[in-house]
Amino acid sequence: MFSNKFGRLMFGLFHLKPTSACGAVRTAAGRSGFSWTAVCKQRTLWLRRGACLQMERRDEPRYTGARSVSQTTVDPAELRRFQLLANKWWDEQGDFAALHAMNDLRVPFIRDNLLNVHRAHHPGKPLAGLRILDVGCGGGLLTEPLGRLGANVLGVDPVEESISIAQLHSSHDPDLADSVSYRACTLEELAGEEGGEQGGAQFDAIVASEVVEHLADLETFTFCCNSVLKPGGSLFLTTINKTNLSYALAIVVAEQLLRIVPSGTHDWEKFISPEELERLLEPNGFLVQSVQGMMYNPVSGAWSWTNSTAINYALHAVKQSDEASDSSPHPENHAAATHS
């Protein structure tokens, strides 16, 4: 009975207009003793801070591509948080259960889009011959299945404890010995080695799943992705949209009510809409190919695709050559054709 009622609640919330979502969650949780006063105050502060940041950014120069990798993608607070969670990566019923379940969507999403570009036939190993970079790999939850599909995958993460867990777990599978490797480093450190004048771009694809909402500098992230990705290479992202509905479900429900993920895991101010993400990617040499909404059912523990990108979404972009980048459409025009 609880599952049916909760399932109807989640379905109803998902189809509400974003402006009414918080009110619906407030009604559903009214008897739980939850402090909505504190939530509303925090939400107001975030909105005010966001408005101030937007006003400041209007006066900033548009990114032109002529810059060095001098910033960092690492947020020290996020680093400390994931250091404390490092030993829980492979507990499929624990704090990362939703990420384990997400593989049912994100692995086929990556595989199928890469096969649309790279049509070589490798029975049983469809991604053989491709080199993939898994940014913010954590304990290797996505790195390993991509390696089993035949790709040569490098997982990088600034949390050394997570890399140690990833290396230990992959060592138990001899089939991964030649296809999966890990390094405790940041994306910008790797870009300085592989994306410079000596090494050039090395990867056929970059994956950053549930990562960008934890980064300190998205412009540095996209710049570094461009520098290590081959022309025509793919960038795959999954993240959380910046809407009232995502605040209600991803933070209030998932963290504070149901404890699906640890409280404090997400900062709504770091969420980003598909349109804003596309506007960031386009001047850094990427053209967005597809954006698809994702929905998590906490009752069944399963993910499914949806036409709505109001909460979670997956994005596939391709690095353009210099010639193609010069003639690419304006991001707002392309967004209107790809987003629902």
Give a short summary of the structure:
44% of the residues lie in helices and 17% in strands. The protein has 13 helices and eight strands.
How much strand content do the residues show? 15-25%
N→C terminal distance: 34 Å
| Class per helix and strand makeup | alpha/beta
List the strand order in the largest sheet.
3-2-1-4-5-8-6-7
Which stretches are low in confidence, meaning pLDDT under 50 for 5 or more residues running?
1-11, 15-70, 328-340
Radius of gyration: 20 Å
Give me the number of helical elements: 13
Helix content: 40-55%
Principal-axes geometry comes out as globular
Number of strands: 8
**From N to C, what is the helix and strand string?**
HHHHHEHEHEHEHEHHEEEHH
Taking the sheet with the most strands, its summary is: 8 strands, mixed
What is the average per-residue confidence, as pLDDT, rounded to a whole number? Answer: 80
Outline the fold blueprint.
Layout: H1 2-14, H2 18-28, H3 36-57, H4 76-85, H5 97-117, E1 131-135, H6 143-148, E2 152-156, H7 160-170, E3 180-183, H8 187-194, E4 203-209, H9 218-228, E5 229-240, H10 244-257, H11 274-281, E6 286-297, E7 302-306, E8 312-319, H12 322-326, H13 331-338
Parallel strand pairs: 1-2, 1-4, 2-3, 4-5
Antiparallel strand pairs: 5-8, 6-7, 6-8
Helix pairs in contact: 2-10, 8-9
